[in-house]
Amino acid sequence: MCGRYALAAPRSQLAWRFALAHCDDHAVRYNIAPGTDIAVVRLSPSGQRVLHLLRWGLLPHWASEAASGARLINARGESLRSRPPNCGRGR
Fold it and tell me: Binning pLDDT at 50, 70 and 90, where does residue 50 land?
């Protein structure tokens, strides 16, 4: 996975494309880095698609807070359960 990406679509286009029931406000950005808030489409508990802003990164199981954890941004599927930062994930 790359460590940077761009989001050029405005809110209205994302709402139409993904048939969103809710869409948090976000800015068009061309250099989105790990550790920043990013636009994510996910299912709500009621089963509707919603767009929320979430922090990009993984929090190791030993970290009590996001600020104290290592700055992990991705994990390999084939070693998800065996590598120390990821043990217990993927269940």
Answer: very high
Question: Taking the domains of the chain in order of start, what are their residue ranges?
Answer: 1-56, 57-91
Residue 81 pLDDT grade (very low, low, confident, very high; cuts 50, 70, 90): low
d(CA 72, CA 84) in angstroms, rounded, equals 12
Which amino acid, one-letter code, is at 14? L
CB proximity list for 88: less than 8 A, separation 6 or greater: 61, 81
Residue 90 tokens, joined: 């993927």
Residue 26: which of 7, 5, 43, 49 has the closest Cα?
7
Phi, psi (rounded to 5 degrees) for 73: -120, -10
Rounded Cα gap, residues 42 and 52, in angstroms: 8
Question: pLDDT tens-digit profile of 62-78?
Answer: 666 666 555 677 777 77
pTM of the prediction?
0.65
